[in-house]
């Protein structure tokens, strides 16, 4: 029998997970059974992905930077990466603002629904507002200060400190470039081998992906709030989803124009990472798979992926920024506020910065939304309005966050002459097996 390609297997896992959960909620004991016996496997799957994120960044970035052999190449690539990331985020926010101003989803919320939503979710919203408090009190240079860890082991012990680990890896890589070749060679060899081991671990974890996403989606469905509230927020959700689809359209078009790689090549290469992003709502958890797919299936060389993707996973969140723009204006509309053109321009700036500051974990975009609301003078209590549908929208925006990182890495790779043909490792039995079955 022809073996299904990985993305179909994952998709199948997702669909069966949703159907299974829908069947389970018909029984009184069903949701508990899913929470007790199925959900833990989803958590194990996410944990195993997170487990390899820090070692992967360390090994691949140290190797990638030292392979560049020249610091000026690093600064050229760094400059391009950051500029393209900022431009793509501004485009995303602008698409979001255009959609929400055309569709005006907030205008369709009745006062009763608004009060009901605020009453139901104000507790949850308060906890997000409190989480954002610390960030709001920070000085203007706090983010820069936080970039440099005082202890690498402390930094590496918390997945939330990804940028500090990235900083250390780049710094270490620069040190490797600057010492004589005969001294650096064994260190590079070590990280090279280490990196291969991690890539192999990703392959192994991906064998469990269809079962992992089955468990994750089944748990999400049994825990989802009632459908009625979803309906009230339908236009708001549609507005974000259309915006996100347009953003994917922007990526495939720009990738095609710049690299001549077709949309189907790009999407089929990256789709397993997109499906994982959807199932886990975390760009950080998806990072190992994104790196593997971009390198082996989209043909971007490791020097570029190891640099562009970990940075992208932490700072480039186009889906999140688009969502923050739509959510802010939606809440303003629902409270009957008229946002001036200048206020909306302000949202472009704050949503861009807020998305950069959002952690690559589920729900982080909503915490930083508090800051966008505060800057625009929109009541923070409005967060309660959008709480009910945040998780499904988080799943969708994470897909765009990951796709954006992949697209930018192709564009950067092309610009520095590091885009080649896909190179599936020939020693890899996992792929050999898959290829033979698909032949
Ligand atoms: N879940 C998103 C991510 O990991 C962040 C967010 O928008 O909440 O990319």
Structural write-up:
With 439 residues, the protein is mainly alpha-helical. 80% of the residues lie in helices and 0% in strands. It has 21 helices and no strands. Helix 17 runs antiparallel to helix 18. The structure holds aspartic acid. The site of aspartic acid has 16 residues, from helix 18 and helix 20. The site of aspartic acid (ASP) has 16 residues, from helix 18 and helix 20.
**For the report, how would you describe the main beta sheet?**
none
Quote the beta fraction.
under 5%
Q: How do the SSEs run, as a string of H and E?
A: HHHHHHHHHHHHHHHHHHHHH
Radius of gyration: 22 Å
- Low-pLDDT regions: 431-439
**Mean of all residue-level pLDDT scores:** 88
What's this model, at a glance?
The chain has 439 residues and is mainly α.
Ordered list of secondary-structure elements with their pairings:
Layout: H1 6-24, H2 30-51, H3 53-68, H4 71-103, H5 111-137, H6 142-147, H7 152-156, H8 162-178, H9 181-207, H10 209-223, H11 227-232, H12 234-259, H13 263-280, H14 283-296, H15 302-315, H16 318-334, H17 341-357, H18 364-376, H19 383-386, H20 390-415, H21 429-438
Bound molecules: aspartic acid.
Structural key phrases:
Proton glutamate symport protein, 80% helix, disordered C terminus, binds aspartic acid, mainly alpha
């Amino acid at each position: 029998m022809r073996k299904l390609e990985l993305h179909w297997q994952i998709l199948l896992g997702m669909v069966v997970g949703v159907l299974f959960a829908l069947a389970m909620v018909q029984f009184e004991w069903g949701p508990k059974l899913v929470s007790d016996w199925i959900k833990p496997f989803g958590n194990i799957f996410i944990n195993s992905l997170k487990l390899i994120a820090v070692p992967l960044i360390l090994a691949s970035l140290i190797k990638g930077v030292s392979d560049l052999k020249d610091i000026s190449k690093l600064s050229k690539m760094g400059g391009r990466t950051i500029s393209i990331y900022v431009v793509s985020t501004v485009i995303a926010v602008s698409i979001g603002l255009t959609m929400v101003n055309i569709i005006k989803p907030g205008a369709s919320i009745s006062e009763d629904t608004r009060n009901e939503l605020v009453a139901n979710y104000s507790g949850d919203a308060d906890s997000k507002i409190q989480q954002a408090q610390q960030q709001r009190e920070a000085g203007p240079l706090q983010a820069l200060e936080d970039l440099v860890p005082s202890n690498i082991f402390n930094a590496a012990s918390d997945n939330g400190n990804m940028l500090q680990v990235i900083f250390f890896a780049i710094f270490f890589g620069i040190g490797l470039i600057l010492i004589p070749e005969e001294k650096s060679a064994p260190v590079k060899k070590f990280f090279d081998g280490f990196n291969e081991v991690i890539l192999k671990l990703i392959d192994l974890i991906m064998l469990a992906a269809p079962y992992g996403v089955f468990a994750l989606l089944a748990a999400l469905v049994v825990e989802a709030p009632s459908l009625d509230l979803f309906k009230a927020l339908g236009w708001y959700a549609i507005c974000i989803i259309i915006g996100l689809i347009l953003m994917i359209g922007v990526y495939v078009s720009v990738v095609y124009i710049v690299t001549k790689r077709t949309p189907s090549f790009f999407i089929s290469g990256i789709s397993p990472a997109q499906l994982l992003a959807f199932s886990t709502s975390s760009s950080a958890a998806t990072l190992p798979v994104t790196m593997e797919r971009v390198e082996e299936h989209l043909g971007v060389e490791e020097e570029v992926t190891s640099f562009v993707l970990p940075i992208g996973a932490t700072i480039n969140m186009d889906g999140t920024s688009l969502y923050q723009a739509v959510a802010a204006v939606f809440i303003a509309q629902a409270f009957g506020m008229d946002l001036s053109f200048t206020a909306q321009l302000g949202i472009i700036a704050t949503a861009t910065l807020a998305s950069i500051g959002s952690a690559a974990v589920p729900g982080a975009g909503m915490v930083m939304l508090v800051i966008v609301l505060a800057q625009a003078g929109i009541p923070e209590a409005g967060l309660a309005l959008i709480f009910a549908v945040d998780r499904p929208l988080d799943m969708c925006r994470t897909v765009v966050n990951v796709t954006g990182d992949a697209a930018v890495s192709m564009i950067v790779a092309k610009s520095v002459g590091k885009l080649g043909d896909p190179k599936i490792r020939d020693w890899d039995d996992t792929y050999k097996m898959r290829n033979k079955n698909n032949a």
